[in-house]
Amino acid sequence: xxxxxxxxxxxARGALGVELGPEDMPPFAAVPESQPTFLKVSVGxxxxxxxxxxxxVNSFRDLEPKEVExxxxxxxxKMVGPTLPSFYLDDDRLPSNKSYGFDFFNGDALCMxxxxxxxxxxxxxxxxxxxxxxxxxxxxxxxxxxxxSGKPFLWVVRSNEEHKLSKELKEKCEEIGLIVSWCPQLExxxxxxxxxxSHTIFLFILCCxxxxxx
Length: 214
Prior knowledge:
Structural class: alpha/beta
Number of domains: 2
Oligomer: single chain
Helix content: 25-40%
Largest sheet: 4 strands, parallel
Order of helices and strands: HHHEHEHEHEHEHEH
Number of helices: 9
Shape: globular
């Protein structure tokens, strides 16, 4: 039931392997009216779930054993993850298959040219998804932290959030990193220059288990 202020109910049902506090809940669950569109899309994914013969889940048991056990018993779920386009599986079956077939944002990938100029495993990738909302103070603190780290970084800031960055911070970031409004996620993750990531999206974590395993 929404709003969900914490994960106690799910934990009691055996659906979670860890305890979640109020600060751990996604905004669309804790405050449904704050993100109505994302809430509608998220809930819509589960329509007809109880009537399905089987449910394929892009995850794997070692990542979340308690949750997998609950899904298997409740919805006859079958773990099929992590799923990736064929190009990243190193089997040469479909070399042209490089994307999932969808992107929330489109744009050129100037960041790939920038990555080519960086050393192996040297770049920090920072991206917080398509629905996260940070105020100017938080972005300023994050940006200064990246600059002060002394490490090259690729920072994805959505175009509708970029106005929150001060001119001074942008100029400071340009000395060591690159700010973009969009990047081709899989290509960037698979690039030799990426050495550390910061992201909150589950799909991103799944990609990393395969693309960064070496």
